[in-house]
Amino acid sequence: MDIEYEATFPNVTVTEARARFTRAGATLVRPRFTQKRAVFHLPAGHEIAGGWARVRDEGDKVTLSIKVVDGTAMTDQKEACVTVSSFDEACTILTLVGCRKKAYQETRRELWVLDDVEVTLDEWPFLAPFVEIEGKGEAAVRRAAERLGFAWAEARFCHVGTLYAEAYGIPERVFNDETPLLLFVMENPFAKR
For the whole model, what pTM was predicted? Predict the structure, then answer.
């Protein structure tokens, strides 16, 4: 499992983020697109602290990943990922090996590239947009963050559930284990809490 060198900068606006990207000389690689994901608990007896399985349809490809976020440092984010041919079949395989589905989620993403670093503008339902910067190492991510005008001290190294917990004053388990459906076209499940 490889370290995922990624920094998150929450609470941006779409207009502000695009302006930062353009000023820094980033190139828009893929305009806003919708992603769907199914998220699973790992099989009993094979749990990993802070770990889960995910199948994500990105429109142009489908990926199957094991993700682990077991701390708040950049090096605490890990991922093993493969491209698969079918969203539904990948979900079926995970279920057959003992994974339990915990959520279906839809999000929107815009992909930019700055030098050799991917910069995404992510939108999740009922959460302020955020920017993720991912590169081959911490130094590359830091350089991109600086060029984009983000203060490194404000970088976050966490799962999106942490952002929801902070935004709504809820325990992370509400997002991680008690929100089986998250769509833009539904009532906000966190506002009731």
Answer: 0.94
